[in-house]
User: Fold these one by one.
Assistant:
Number 1:
Amino acid sequence: MLFNSLEFFIFLPIVFFVYWKILSSRVSFQNIFLLGASYLFYAWWDWRFLFLLAFSTLLDFYSGLLIQNSNHARGRKFWLITSVLINIGFLMFFKYYNFFADSLRDSFLSLGISLDLPTLKLILPVGISFYTFHGMSYVFDIYRNQGKPTKNLVNYSLFVSYFPLLVAGPIERASHLLPQLEVPRKWNWKQFKEGLFLVSWGFFKKVVIADSLAVFVDEVFKNYQHESGINLLVGAVFFSFQIYGDFSGYSDIARGVSKFFGIELLLNFNFPYFSRSIPEFWKRWHISLSSWFRDYLFIPLGGSKEGKLKALRNVIIIFLVSGFWHGANWTFIIWGGIHALMYIPSFLFGSHKKYKGTEFSTGKWYPSLREGLSILATFALVTVAWIFFRADDVSTAWNFIHRMVSAMFSNFSIDIRHLFNFTYIVIFILLDLILHAKKEVKYAWQIIFFLLAMLLILNGEKPNFLYFQF
């Protein structure tokens, strides 16, 4: 079920009404109902994958109990490794089997050896990367004595499969979400209004901004051999805003819908394109994933406490794995590698910890000239890397960049659509800044955003959110 579908606009009011009007007296009844609604939400795509979601849930729930009840370190480690290997095994099989089979076949073929490996016609279960990481973080925290396992299977199942975040995050932590599921929730009008703003603004980002830009972006990347350099540059810039509007729009809708039920989700985006460096970008972009890799991969590998060489190794590993997490394609791995290379200079000189706050200027509401240039430079680097993320294969990405540079001055004709789309972007940036700074304004505008988004949903196509494929 898509957030931007008519089915969801029937589903959500029904769940909301039953949750608050019929079941508000007992939190246990609310949780059982939300769990059932979440499984219905997921089954709308393909009910056959419910077994995989349920199996992953039961695996990590009982693994957590077994780890906690083990009297010896060896037993605790055994149950941790068992849980992680099974989780990763399912993820690798459904998401990466064909990638490894094709890569291995091509490698042997380059040596003159024909290797017959079958390619499976697998359907990628929606959200498998997200709910797998939910469960793994829970088991890791119990193993490291940073949390205790819950004995309530319903509450844990809801933590894993809660429908607003089930298919595209944010990737929640048990320490943040589970306590909210264990206590009674009371109706909060202020929280509801905040949720309404997030939902309306999220739909505006997705439907008005991202989907409008997608039309031009798809055309440019499909026919890049025949486009002028300036069109390719514009297409790359538009994709940067498309993926931000699409993914952050989903996160806003998820957080807003969750507020309707009195539950707070983690912030996943914090003005990433106002970052003044690549390290700052990764503190603002897909925050729940970045922090997951920091806590459960970078730090266990030794972090930066075992010398510069090992620290550099760890930085490269987490970026490559982060790229591979996004999909079974070399383009994602190279995208991660590019960000690793761009991150390393700041890491070596110790400036990767420079920006820790939420502001994007020092001591005033607008950036200085130096900060402004740093923002533009960071955005340019991120945009070039996005080309690999968007391209179908590595050769397409390289050829796209080569033609963008070589044909930059060959044709200066301006497509009229550029002007409309640039207008969208400018309005989008200004509204994003103003509405998040002026709380008294956002409630007056949210109806306009919502109605405009609904108008486009009712009269046009309903493209998937980009991160549903991950």
Number 2:
Amino acid sequence: MRNDKTLKMIWYACGLVYVITLLFSFWHNWQIQDKEALGMAVVACITPLIVPIIFHIFHFQPVYEIYILSTLFMYFASLIGSTFHWYSYPGFDKALHFSSGIFATIVAVIVFYLIRKSNRLKTEEDRRMMLVFINAFNLAIAVCWEFYEYALLIFFNNDAINHYTQGVHDTITDMMCACVGGILMTLCIWRARKTGKENFFTNIYQKFYEKNIRKEDADDR
């Protein structure tokens, strides 16, 4: 409980930095009359709320590690990247896709536990099934994001997918970065299960299980 209070305060601090940066973004882009960046600043008002809203809709108990990571990711992906044009810096986009692969794989483990209503992997087949599922889930997220960017190009002539300058190169390398991040997270998960030594990332989905699935799992026994 004490740890949760500390994490909650860290999340609030991250939120405060986010709001201050967002207000500066509005002021800065208004001064230079960058209408596209102003529009993305409006979007950046919504993106950090996505994860807390999902938790609220499904009546999940908060896991502040997830809240902190999602806020930090949206800070760079939505606020810094879009409203300050950091996507023009080489490697920035790829680093975000790489980190998205790590986060999506963690979410995939949570989804896997929710579907099974258990974190118990009794057989080798169970373990293999989870490894296949979490990597397929990660790649599905990466593909859906590229579908979204392609839709922006087709319907709004917004070349977020860099079609006119890079062709398929940007799309493929984005998905490759997410794939590599997912594979590294998979190895991290496999090592934790093999050695019994949890780490920050594996503790996240274990904590979600303890808070939101364990009681139901116990009731089913």
